[in-house]
């Protein structure tokens, strides 16, 4: 499993412990005073009472050298935290968001309780939670001045807004709007419905939004933002909002896309939207924005604020929740983490449902207000109305925007009932009326059609009914897609189908379900083990979620492009204006006639006229637009400007595109639904056209405009190029992004492994050195022990000799001396034991006093800093007071007043204006009264403002003096306590030293006596030196014992160090193994996300559909004499194999390069038509125009005849119910032919248009019959 790697980002003001390279426990402590960049910080060392008068020392440290310190307020000690925290404080945030107001923050002094009972939360940092309820209460009591700090205007405004919103008793809840250009109209409709619902409630009703207002993270489209602001401007109810993961930009989530909405409208005298960027208590409920760090989320759920709240609103992933109808979340927060007996409402997942557990509260997902993608088909959306206790009062169904329906039979299709009028809310009875399915204009219907049914003979009654129903629904404005299933299944899909009979069609799979299906197939094929499958599934789903796997890829609507006309002026060989109709003309032959010198028809402008529409739409004449979207050779030689106007409809909405180009610049205009969407530049306008119409040169060249060389592109394409082409059928962008993400994570994991290997190498070197030192210490200890044994043996020998001598001696004096010697020795031993016990008693009595002395010194140091700060406040407030005094003196001098006794009751202005020195008019003169009143009012205002400023400065100065006095008083008490403690310590120490010295003096005296008695005994037994030898042996023995004890202590110390180093090395190896496993898994996922893995798995279905459809066209064009097979190898290469029927009727494989020109052309035409049909059938683009430039090259007479009939069939598919062209809806097919081929097929065309070139100019002779 991949671990989350986080690095602590320190902030200015953090207390830290500076780790030394030797892991010294007495490491220095400091405070972050500056961020230097590149992972470096400036740290000021903490000062103690002894060095508080010395300048603070500042050192430079890396962030990895720092460890979090917690400051215990109770005893004034800096306590080292057990581990580094990941909580950061954003003290420099100057945003005017409500989240800046930190109110009633209660740090948890004890460990957060572990809801799971496994100690997992025991070291989590305390979360920062903002209590607006407490803030409003203090604001209403008039005691919020201490809360709002240095910016009373901003914070008071926020408190007024919170107090206003708190008066509302009902709340309408919605979430996951996912506003984007594709969903903008639906989002505006949702906002109208939400506001109307709130206004219709009897009680005062506000709105709650639970995250993901925007769809694309990081950037806001100006048009979308302006439209949303315009819609919100009419709102009259407040809205409380929390950002979701799609709204957030930064990892912490405080930078998000809801900020521009904070002042979108006003309710009364306060802003309507209240955006909560941090966990916040409001109306006894806890609102939690999306929190990516799961440990931070656990800390929030375990906090006292969460436990005390009656409800919880959040945007989070909960284990067991439905990510969609098929996938259950296996990550996120466990339901057991939630406190019991709470109302919990969440955004994030779009399916309205609840996660229930007997051990916790029920978590309700409100769900998105409309069906965002096909994965939400048939889901019933809702708005939830809550009462003042946050209980669900009612659920209101909502039905806006495009809805998605999945059907699998013709009977279901025939039961669909179309409502032409849109409604915002529907009832269950209305939905189930007469057993039919109610749909509206613009809804999307996806029908799964078995291939064996879809590929029946042309006059099948089934397809007659199917085509008729599809045509009827499309004419009524519905998007109908037919998806082929069944018949030919790849080896992968076949194995998967055997295991999962109710699996969804692969085209409809979400990325999560696709990943699951792929891994299941790999497991069935024994390519991976079950355990590896579980790991790859978990990590892969995490990556998909990280890159927003819930992206609304299916939001893109089906595009029906109907082109009605193109008008060209000065374009190519056309100098004069030519209008060319393009709608409902049937099969049209476009030929040329050159009356100038040269070829008969070449160079007349046939292709220029036919491809002018492509240039108007995309700025390109072929499938390869130039980098600046300009074409150099489109301007007529006799014109200064080339201009093309394209008119048509996109999904029944009219549009006009006017593209022009001069020698120096180009211009582009775009109108849709009579609204001018032209932007500031041609590039931006082109992007708007591609977005609104869903067209670009690439897709148009595959669907509508086939140039002379473009028809061979698919057959000639390289493997990678063909895969790029297939991306039009199966979008692979998300998987490519997932591949990059997985590989980047794998590279980072590899880097971590390399770092671990370097650390392990260093640790192994340290262990080798320690091992050598331990071995040497062990040898030294053993040697010392051997010497002790030898010294004991010698000493015992000497004792034996002395005892023998004493036994032989009869002298009573010797016996007396011996007795005295034993007595003295016993007394020396007693004094030695007394000394040791006294020394231990001394340590036991002085240790608590020294600990207390250290703590008091820390408090004194802190109080000194506090006193310095208060002194700075006094000086600052004194300056403000002096400034206010000077200002009052200036006013007295300006207005000739004396304000020492207050404002005079008969305050009057002076005779002359203090500004311009002109005499003021008397009251009786004209205009005098008004002028005097104005001057007097200005004078009064200035005096009042000056006195208020003076009063504020005076109060602030008094408060600063008071705080400084209190601090000084407390400091004096602490310093007195410190002095007392130091005095007590010195007295106790002096007494103990005296006592120990007395014992040592007694021992010295006794030893002297012992020495005298020994000398006397030596004199008595002069004949022998045994006594001295015994003493020498005793000294030697004691010395050897001391050496052995020292050697043994050294050995034990080094052994402990070696054991610790080995344990640390084992930890490093374990971490390295985990990192290697992560790197292996991520590398495997990166490979399986790539083109050789799941992308191939997904492409297989598209390749099968393309081959089946292409074979249908190839059978038609070749009379069944050719076959073209497309398949994916076990790797990822797309194989193209050609087969030609021999004289015996059997097909034989032939390389593509050996096909004749006509056979090659048949294959390329079949593949091109099949590709265009699939693009249209999958809803990517359906065009009414088909342009074929010289399609009959290399075809013989039978081939040309078959081609003409096929194009006729494609045209007839719009009106008829015949087979095979379900994706096409062509109303006009323009075929460009040379004279010979044109004469041969002239009677097959509905009309013949001729481009005539005469005197250097080309004109169009339109077939009047076909144009009407």
UniProtKB/TrEMBL annotation:
Keyword terms: Coiled coil
Keyword Coiled coil on entry: yes
GO biological process: double-strand break repair
MF GO annotations: ATP hydrolysis activity
InterPro entries: Calcineurin-like_PHP, Metallo-depent_PP-like, P-loop_NTPase, Rad50/SbcC_AAA
Origin superkingdom: Eukaryota
Entry annotated with the keyword Coiled coil: yes
All copies of domain Rad50/SbcC-type AAA, residue ranges: 565-829
Coiled coil stretches, renumbered: 936-991, 1051-1078
Residue ranges occupied by any Calcineurin-like phosphoesterase domain in the UniProt entry: 172-253
PANTHER family: ABC TRANSPORTER ABCH.3
Protein name per the record: Calcineurin-like phosphoesterase domain-containing protein
């Amino acid at each position: 499993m991949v671990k989350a790697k986080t690095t602590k980002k320190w902030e200015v003001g953090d207390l830290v412990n500076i780790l030394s390279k030797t892991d010294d426990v007495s490491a220095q402590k400091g405070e972050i005073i500056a961020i230097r960049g590149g992972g470096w910080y400036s740290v000021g060392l903490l000062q103690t009472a002894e060095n508080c008068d010395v300048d603070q020392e500042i050192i430079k440290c890396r962030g990895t050298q720092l460890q979090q310190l917690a400051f215990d307020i109770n005893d004034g000690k800096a306590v080292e935290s057990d581990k580094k925290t990941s909580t950061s404080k954003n003290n420099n945030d100057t945003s005017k968001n409500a989240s800046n107001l930190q109110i009633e923050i209660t740090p948890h002094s004890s460990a957060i309780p572990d809801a799971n009972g496994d100690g997992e939360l025991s070291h989590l940092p305390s979360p920062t939670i903002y209590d607006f309820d407490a803030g409003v209460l203090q604001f209403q009591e008039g005691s919020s001045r201490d809360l709002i700090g240095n910016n009373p205007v901003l914070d008071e405004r926020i408190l007024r807004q919170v107090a206003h919103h708190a008066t509302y008793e009902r709340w309408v809840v919605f979430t996951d709007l996912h506003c984007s250009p594709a969903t903008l109209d639906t989002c505006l409709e949702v906002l109208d419905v939400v506001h109307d619902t709130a206004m219709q409630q009897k009680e005062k009703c506000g709105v709650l939004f639970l995250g993901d207002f925007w769809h694309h993270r990081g950037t806001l489209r100006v048009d979308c933002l302006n439209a949303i602001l315009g819609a919100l401007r009419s709102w009259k109810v407040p809205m409380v909002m929390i950002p979701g993961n799609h709204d957030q930009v930064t990892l912490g989530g405080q930078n998000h896309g809801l900020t521009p909405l904070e002042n979108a409208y006003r309710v009364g005298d306060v802003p309507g939207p209240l955006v909560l960027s941090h966990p916040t208590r409001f109306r006894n409920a806890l609102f939690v924005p999306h929190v990516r760090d799961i440990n931070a989320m656990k800390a929030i759920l375990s906090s006292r604020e969460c436990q005390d709240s009656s409800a919880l609103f959040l945007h989070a992933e909960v284990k067991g929740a439905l990510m969609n109808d098929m996938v259950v979340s296996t990550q996120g927060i466990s339901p057991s983490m939630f406190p019991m007996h709470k109302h919990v409402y969440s955004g994030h997942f779009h399916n309205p449902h609840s996660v229930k557990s007997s051990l916790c509260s029920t978590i309700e997902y409100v769900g998105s207000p409309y069906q965002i993608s096909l994965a939400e088909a048939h889901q019933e959306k809702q708005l939830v109305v809550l009462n003042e206790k946050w209980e669900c009062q009612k659920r209101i169904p909502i039905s806006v925007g495009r809805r998605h329906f999945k059907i699998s039979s013709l009977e279901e299709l025939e039961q669909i009932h179309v409502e032409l009028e849109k409604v915002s809310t529907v009832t269950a009875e209305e939905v189930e009326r007469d057993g039919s399915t109610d749909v509206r204009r613009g809804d999307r219907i996806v029908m799964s059609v078995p291939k064996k049914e879809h590929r029946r003979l042309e006059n099948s009654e089934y397809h007659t009914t199917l085509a008729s129903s599809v045509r009827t629904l499309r004419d009524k404005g519905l998007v109908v897609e037919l998806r082929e299933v069944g018949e030919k299944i790849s080896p992968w899909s076949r194995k998967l189908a055997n295991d999962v009979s109710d699996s969804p069609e692969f085209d409809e799979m979400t990325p999560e379900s696709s990943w699951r299906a792929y891994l299941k197939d790999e497991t069935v094929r024994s390519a991976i083990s079950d355990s590896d499958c579980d790991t790859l599934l978990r990590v892969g789903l995490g990556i998909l979620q990280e890159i927003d796997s819930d992206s609304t890829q299916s939001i893109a609507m089906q595009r029906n492009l109907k082109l009605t006309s193109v008008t060209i002026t000065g374009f190519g060989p056309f100098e004069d204006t030519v209008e060319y109709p393009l709608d409902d003309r049937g099969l049209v032959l476009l030929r040329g006639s050159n009356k100038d010198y040269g070829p008969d028809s070449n160079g007349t402008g046939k292709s220029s006229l036919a491809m002018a529409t492509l240039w108007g739409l995309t700025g390109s004449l072929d499938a390869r637009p130039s980098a600046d979207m300009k074409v150099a050779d489109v301007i007529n030689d006799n014109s200064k400007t080339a201009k093309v106007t394209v008119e048509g409809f996109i999904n029944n909405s009219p549009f006009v595109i006017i593209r022009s180009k001069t020698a120096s610049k180009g211009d582009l205009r775009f109108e849709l639904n009579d609204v001018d969407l032209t932007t500031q530049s041609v590039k931006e306008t082109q992007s708007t056209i591609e977005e609104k119409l869903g067209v670009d040169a690439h897709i148009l060249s595959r669907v509508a405009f086939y140039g002379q060389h473009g028809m061979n592109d698919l057959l000639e394409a390289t493997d990678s190029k063909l895969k790029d082409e297939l991306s039009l059928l199966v979008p692979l962008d998300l998987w490519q992004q997932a591949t990059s993400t997985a590989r980047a994570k794998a590279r980072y994991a590899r880097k971590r492994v390399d770092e671990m290997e370097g650390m392990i190498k260093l640790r192994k070197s340290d262990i080798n050195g320690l091992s050598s030192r331990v071995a040497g210490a062990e040898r030294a200890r053993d040697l010392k022990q051997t010497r002790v044994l030898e010294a004991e043996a010698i000493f015992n020998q000497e004792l034996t000799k002395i005892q023998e001598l004493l036994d032989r001696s009869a002298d009573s004096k010797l016996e007396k001396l011996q007795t005295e010697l034993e007595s003295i020795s016993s007394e020396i031993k007693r004094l030695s034991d007394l000394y040791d016990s006294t020394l231990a008693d001394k340590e036991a009595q002085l240790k608590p006093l020294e600990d207390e002395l250290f703590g008091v010194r820390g408090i004194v140091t802190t109080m000194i800093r506090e006193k310095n700060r208060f002194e700075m406040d006094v000086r600052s407030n004194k300056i403000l007071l002096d400034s206010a005094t000077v200002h009052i003196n200036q006013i007295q001098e300006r207005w000739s007043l004396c304000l020492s006794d207050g404002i005079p009751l008969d305050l009057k202005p002076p005779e002359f204006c203090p500004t311009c020195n002109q005499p003021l008019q008397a009251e009786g003169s004209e205009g005098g009264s008004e002028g005097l009143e104005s001057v007097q009012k200005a004078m009064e205002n200035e005096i009042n403002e000056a006195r208020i400023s003076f009063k504020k400065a005076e109060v602030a100065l008094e408060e600063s003096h008071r705080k400084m006095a209190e601090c000084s008083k407390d400091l004096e008490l602490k310093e007195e306590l410190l002095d007392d403690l130091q005095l007590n310590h010195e007295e106790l120490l002096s007494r103990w030293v005296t006592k120990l010295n007395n014992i040592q003096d007694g021992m010295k005296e006794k030893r002297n006596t012992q020495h005298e008695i020994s000398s006397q005994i030596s004199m008595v037994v002069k004949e022998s030196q045994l006594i001295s030898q015994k003493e020498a042996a005793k000294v030697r023995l004691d010395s050897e014992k001391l050496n052995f004890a020292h050697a043994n202590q050294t050995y034990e110390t080094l052994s402990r160090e070696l054991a610790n180093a080995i344990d640390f090395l084992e930890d490093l190896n374990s971490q390295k193994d985990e990192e290697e496993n992560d790197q292996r898994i991520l590398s495997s996922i990166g490979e399986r996300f790539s083109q050789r893995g799941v992308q191939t798995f997904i492409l297989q279905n598209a390749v099968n559909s393309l081959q089946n459809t292409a074979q249908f066209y190839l059978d038609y064009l070749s009379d069944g004499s050719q076959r073209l097979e497309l398949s994916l190898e076990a790797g990822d290469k797309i194989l193209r194999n050609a087969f030609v029927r021999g004289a015996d009727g059997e097909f034989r494989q032939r390389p593509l390069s050996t096909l004749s020109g006509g056979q090659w052309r048949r294959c390329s035409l079949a593949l091109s038509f099949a590709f265009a049909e699939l693009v249209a059938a999958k809803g990517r683009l359906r065009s009414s125009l088909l342009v074929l430039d010289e399609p009959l090259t290399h075809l013989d007479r039978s081939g040309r005849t078959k081609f003409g009939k096929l194009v006729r069939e494609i045209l007839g598919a719009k009106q008829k119910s015949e087979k095979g062209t379900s994706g096409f809806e062509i109303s006009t097919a323009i075929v460009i032919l040379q004279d010979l081929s044109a004469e041969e097929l002239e009677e097959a065309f509905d009309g013949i248009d001729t481009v005539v070139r005469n005197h250097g100019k080309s004109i169009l002779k339109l077939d009047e019959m076909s144009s009407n």
